[in-house]
Amino acid sequence: MGRKWNNIKEKKASKDANTSRVYAKFGVEIYVAAKKGDPDPETNRALKVVVERAKTYNVPKAIIDRALEKAKGSGDEQYAELRYEGFGPNGSMIIVDALTNNVNRTAPEVRSAFNKNGGNMGVAGSVAYMFDSTAVIGITGKTADEVLEILMEADVDARDILEEDEAVIVYAEPDQFHAVQEAFKEAGVTEFTVAELTMLPQNYLTLPDEAAYAQFEKLIDALEDLEDVQQVYHNVEFED
């Protein structure tokens, strides 16, 4: 699949280790998901996905509970869900998903991050058609064969099952996210190393040299540093 999901998560966690940024972003995402439906993760599937993902990033329960309580109470902040598409160095492709309470702020900031770091914004649809929405769920303590057996017994389909480092990662259709998790829970799994609904590129791009990778990472960091940006997806393959 071209990505080491546990390594990506660990890198992001390390990057945010000394800040509250990751918690703030999850707080907004949980609040928005809760406001769009029932503020109970057990009955609101979209909310449950966000909460499960937050847990894999070690977001404190207090942060999650605070966002849920805000959604249940008098919180009336309005957020827009926005998607931007663009290109980085060497024709790399990038998707940026944002949640914002100020649409006039977000687009200029995203455009500036692209322009200042060797990229440029594209029009809607210029990049997304080269990506597939995918559920990515990882666990430890099982082999790939054991995971396949668990999913088969639960009659759950997966696109792929790969061993990555010490984890087993399941790639599935987005509508199978909860079914995969429930199959694992029935098999006694209580923690997930990865629990994402993401956009995977159909093909990965290898950049020509270290300078190109450094420039690309600078662009991705600039985008992820923006307050309104929740997720950044791309098609560049990094070495382990």
From TrEMBL:
Pfam families: TACO1_YebC_N, Transcrip_reg
Domain TACO1/YebC-like second and third: 79-236
Coiled-coil positions: none
Superkingdom: Bacteria
GO BP terms, alphabetized: regulation of DNA-templated transcription
Major site of localization recorded for this protein: cytoplasm
Keyword Transmembrane helix recorded: no
Domain TACO1/YebC-like N-terminal: 3-73
GO molecular function: DNA binding
InterPro entries: Integrase-like_N, TACO1_YebC-like_2nd/3rd_dom, TACO1_YebC_N, Transcrip_reg_TACO1-like, Transcrip_reg_TACO1-like_dom3, Transcrip_reg_TACO1_YeeN, YebC-like
Cellular-component GO terms for this entry: cytosol
Location within or outside the cell: Cytoplasm
Keywords, sorted A to Z: Cytoplasm, DNA-binding, Transcription, Transcription regulation
HAMAP family: Transcrip_reg_TACO1 (MF_00693), Transcrip_reg_TACO1_YeeN (MF_00918)
Family named by the database record: Belongs to the TACO1 family. YeeN subfamily.
PANTHER family attached to this UniProt entry: TRANSLATIONAL ACTIVATOR OF CYTOCHROME C OXIDASE 1 (PTHR12532:SF0)
Protein name per UniProt: Probable transcriptional regulatory protein PTI45_03236
